[in-house]
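Tip: read the tokens left to right.
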């Protein structure tokens, strides 16, 4: 049990969501002046005129005039546009801001009218240029995307859009990707405008308000069902839209609903689909200084200054310090940790408050506990922390107040140390946010989710690592991730500059470092994928179908925009390929392919030779080995020693061997690179190498001195290696795999025989006698590579020219027909209507279980436990021992899942049956069963190693799915089942799990 132990959603097209074409005009009834009681007649008349002027058809004369006006506009260019051409117009470019607009080719573009009337909202400070331009777009009733760095002031634009809507008696929707962020935005907007409501999966407050804050999931549901609310909406504000790319899809809203989009990612408007202004700025309100802290070093190194200049010399010095202190030795050192030293230094230099980002929840807690001896708060601040904390948890029961997280967190908070990650109890997380915003927390240890949307900057930001685990492997964080988190440094109006410190414990190439620290934000790429719920909802709406939605999606648009470049790429590659003329091409090509085959077989043989069983007995000190790492040939070196380690990067511990080899390296780089041949720029260095990097094993060994620390000793070993190489001009003798290494594997022997046969054919081939063989062989290799590139580019082009995922759509519709959700005419049946009600779980499996009667004989507690398998997604090593009461229903559910997987496989969908079944995780079944029977939260926390916050998130998602199951049961008229699911909601909705948000 750990000491401190929202889903991302998507934005949808109006085509994919609203349903009938007949409904669309009504959605801006208020802006067309036809039906909204909120809008005055004067406003209606004015807006109606604006709409008619901008949308009326052009006659021939006006079209010519329009084209003439466009040619005069500076910076005009054409780009692909969702199914039609678009025009990109550069309106204005200042030193701090760029303003462009994207309009369809047949759209009458009009200049923005100046702001003459009294503004809808006034601010006590001077607006930045990007804010003024965005507000001008809003006042002209035109969609706008605002792209600026964190804390630059994008919220000002959103507030103004809301103020305009309230002034014009229209409704406005403000969406965020997370429920927690929606709660915070609701509090901000309520304090500002009062007439504000909230709609999330957990909470609904004042749904008839003029301004409604909601998650994008709720907006999607409203669009699917043609909600009446959308008929009155004039503006929709999408906040943090760059985070929505990680889920289902991003497509455009109706042109009759004006859109304001806020994001950190700086990208151009050619990635948008409807007439839209784009105002973006790359200037930070508070400039940043970026420092590197190499593990074990004595100080920091400024690598990017406040002007954005990358300091290459400082970067290389930092890497040199890392090399001298020993790579990967941070956990083996005694005394204070590197993080402890950095935080203490920050406090001594008065650079607080500081946010320390870690990519592990458990590491967050561990690092915070290391600071428990430090104290950053005054006596008065401690009293305030205690008062805020006590008031926050006052709503909890006495039992919940004694939870380990609650008890152990307060002493740290009093010292000015906080923790923020998804495993925390929500009420504690919100308390910490409030304390941090009030300056009562000086050092906050957080995961990257803290950088999403929260307007809580600090003076300093620290990264404890430059790598993160992405679910498959450890990788460098992207420049976009770095920008998002480092953007929390620097408080506007308080700090002259923000400080960012990156702790690093392994060698990093300067190219990677520059890309990370000074790179561009991640592009906004659609990660669209089809779901059965989406297909069914589109099928039940008249005048629209999934095929049309695919054609008009942002995903398809991004795909189509690559076609011109791919066509040009194919032409260039073909031209290069055809320009290569090879003498006796057929024979040379045959010779090249034989050599290539030998090379591949040699690699297979190499994998045998470097297996620990055969290789390790010959890793004696002094053994000469040839080392090649990532294509870089270090030549011959001497084995110094080898180490046996256990890798923890996978769920199953794996034994790995690291061989220390003395190699000749270049002194031009801190990162080990082969020597260039200049004696004054090379040195003998001991390099840790994997067995796979040992290309050749020699039968020769050289003498090694006892102490290799002096450079002279290493230099003498290098001289000995050079002498050995001179004595064997035809190459060093190698260990014989069979005679010396005793490899008797039959597969290995077959590989050796194939190599011998191919080598004989090479010697007798016609091309072998050609004096220009090597030159012709190189040309042949180049031509084959170009031919392969042409084929690959043509495949990409063909893929881009087709409607993306259309084959998958056909397969999914085939599954729906075979299971009885829709008929051959794509008209949905009763099962399909039931599945439409379920969108937070596996809709097909849950619907099948309802129709199979899987829940009929189960108790309320069993239903709750079984449904927990659909909402728990986290990894845990602890598999509970389930009683027959729970394992029986689980087996029935798994049987139904296998049947669905088999039907999907028969329908040609790419699905693995076992993976699909195992995706339903039963790890919290016993926990949820106990909770539904009335167990205390402290009791169920002891039943699992899952974080407390994760348990609460699971139970809250379970409440959502139970509500949807109620609606599904109601659709088929099963009152008994509907009541059972309703009772399940009553059983789980209690105590700390559903404690009210402090923001509400």
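Filled-in amino acids:
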């Amino acid at each position: 049990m750990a000491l401190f132990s929202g889903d991302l959603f998507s934005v949808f097209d109006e085509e994919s969501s609203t349903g009938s074409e007949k409904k669309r005009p009504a959605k801006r009834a208020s802006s067309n002046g036809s039906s909204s009681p909120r809008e005055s007649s004067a406003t209606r008349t004015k807006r109606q005129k604006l709409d008619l002027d901008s949308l009326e058809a052009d006659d021939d004369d006006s079209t010519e005039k329009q084209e003439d006006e466009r040619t005069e506009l500076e910076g005009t260019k054409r780009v692909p546009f969702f199914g039609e051409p678009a025009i990109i117009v550069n309106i204005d470019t200042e030193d701090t801001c760029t303003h462009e607009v994207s309009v369809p080719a047949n759209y009458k573009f009009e200049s923005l009218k100046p702001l003459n009337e009294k503004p809808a909202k006034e601010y006590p400070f001077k607006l930045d240029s990007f804010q003024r331009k965005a507000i001008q777009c809003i006042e002209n009733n035109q969609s706008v995307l605002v792209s600026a760095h964190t804390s630059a002031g994008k919220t000002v634009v959103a507030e103004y859009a809301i103020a305009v809507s309230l002034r014009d008696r229209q409704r406005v929707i403000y969406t965020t990707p997370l429920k927690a962020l929606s709660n915070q935005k609701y509090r901000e907007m309520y304090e500002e405008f009062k007439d504000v409501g909230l709609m999330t999966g957990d909470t609904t407050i004042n749904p008839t308000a003029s301004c409604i804050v909601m998650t994008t999931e709720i907006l999607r549901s409203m669009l699917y069902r043609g909600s009446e609310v959308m008929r009155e909406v004039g503006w929709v504000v999408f906040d943090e839209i760059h985070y929505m790319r990680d889920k289902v899809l991003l497509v455009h809203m109706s042109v009759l609903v004006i859109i304001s989009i806020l994001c950190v990612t700086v990208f151009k408007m050619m990635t948008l689909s409807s007439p839209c202004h784009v105002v973006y700025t790359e200037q930070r309100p508070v400039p940043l200084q970026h420092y590197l802290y190499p593990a074990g070093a004595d100080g920091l190194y400024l690598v990017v200054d406040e002007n954005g200049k990358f300091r290459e010399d400082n970067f290389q010095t930092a890497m040199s310090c890392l090399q001298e202190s020993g790579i990967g030795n941070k956990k083996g050192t005694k005394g204070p940790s590197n993080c402890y030293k950095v935080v203490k230094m920050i406090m001594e230099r008065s650079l607080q408050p500081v946010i320390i980002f870690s990519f592990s929840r458990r590491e967050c807690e561990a690092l915070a506990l290391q600071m428990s001896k430090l104290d950053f708060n005054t006596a008065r601040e401690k009293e305030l922390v205690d008062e805020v904390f006590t008031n926050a948890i006052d709503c909890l029961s006495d039992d919940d107040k004694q939870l380990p997280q609650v008890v152990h967190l307060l002493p740290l908070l009093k010292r000015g140390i906080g923790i923020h990650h998804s495993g925390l109890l929500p009420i504690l997380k919100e308390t910490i946010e409030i304390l941090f915003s009030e300056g009562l927390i000086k050092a906050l240890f957080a995961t990257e989710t803290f950088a999403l949307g929260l307007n809580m900057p600090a003076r300093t930001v620290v990264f404890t690592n430059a790598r993160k685990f992405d679910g498959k492997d450890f990788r460098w964080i992207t420049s976009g991730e770095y920008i998002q988190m480092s953007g929390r440094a620097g408080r506007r109006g308080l700090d002259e500059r923000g400080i960012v410190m990156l702790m690093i414990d392994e060698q990093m190439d300067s190219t990677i470092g520059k890309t990370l620290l000074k790179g561009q934000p991640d592009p906004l790429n659609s990660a669209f994928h089809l779901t059965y719920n989406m297909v069914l909802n589109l099928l039940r709406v008249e005048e629209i179908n999934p095929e049309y939605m695919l054609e008009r999606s942002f995903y398809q648009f991004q795909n189509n925009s690559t076609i011109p470049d791919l066509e040009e790429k194919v032409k260039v590659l073909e031209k290069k390929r055809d320009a290569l003329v090879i003498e006796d091409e057929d024979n040379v090509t045959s010779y090249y392919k034989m050599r290539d085959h030998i090379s591949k077989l040699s690699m297979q043989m190499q994998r045998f030779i470097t297996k620990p069983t055969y290789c390790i007995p010959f890793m004696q000190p002094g053994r000469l080995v040839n080392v090649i790492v990532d294509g870089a040939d270090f030549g011959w070196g001497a084995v110094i020693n080898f180490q046996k380690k256990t890798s923890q990067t996978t769920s199953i511990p794996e034994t790995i061997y690291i061989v220390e080899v003395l190699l000749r390296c270049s002194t031009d780089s801190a990162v080990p690179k082969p020597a260039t041949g200049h004696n004054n720029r090379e040195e003998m260095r001991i390099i840790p190498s994997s067995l796979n990097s040992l290309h050749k094993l020699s039968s020769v060994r050289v003498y090694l001195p006892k102490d290799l620390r002096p450079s002279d000793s290493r230099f003498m070993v290098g001289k000995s290696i050079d002498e050995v190489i001179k004595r064997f001009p035809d190459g060093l003798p190698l260990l014989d795999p069979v005679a010396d290494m005793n490899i008797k594997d039959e597969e290995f022997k077959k590989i050796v025989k194939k190599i011998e046969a191919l080598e004989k054919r090479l010697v007798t081939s016609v091309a072998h006698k050609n004096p220009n063989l090597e030159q012709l062989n190189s040309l042949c290799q180049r031509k084959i590579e170009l031919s392969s590139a042409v084929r690959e580019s043509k495949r990409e082009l063909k893929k881009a020219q087709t409607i993306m995922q259309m084959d998958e759509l056909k397969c999914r519709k085939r599954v729906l027909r075979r299971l009885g959700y829709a008929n051959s005419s794509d008209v949905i049946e009763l099962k399909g209507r039931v599945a439409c009600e379920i969108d937070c779980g596996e809709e097909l499996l849950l619907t099948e279980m309802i129709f199979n009667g899987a829940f009929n004989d189960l108790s309320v507690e069993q239903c709750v436990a079984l449904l927990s398998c659909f909402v728990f997604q986290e990894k845990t090593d602890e598999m509970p021992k389930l009683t027959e009461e729970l394992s029986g229903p689980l087996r029935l559910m798994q049987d139904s899942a296998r049947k669905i997987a088999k039907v999907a496989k028969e329908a040609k969908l790419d699905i693995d049956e076992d993976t699909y079944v195992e995706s339903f995780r039963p790890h919290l079944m016993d926990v949820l069963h106990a909770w539904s029977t009335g167990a205390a939260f402290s009791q169920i926390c002891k039943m699992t190693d899952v974080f407390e916050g994760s348990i609460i998130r699971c139970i809250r998602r379970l409440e959502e799915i139970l509500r949807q199951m109620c609606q599904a049961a109601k659709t088929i008229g099963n009152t008994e089942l509907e009541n059972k699911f309703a009772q399940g909601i009553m059983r789980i909705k209690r105590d700390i799990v559903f404690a009210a948000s402090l923001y509400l």
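The first helix runs from residue 24 to 27. The mean pLDDT is 78.
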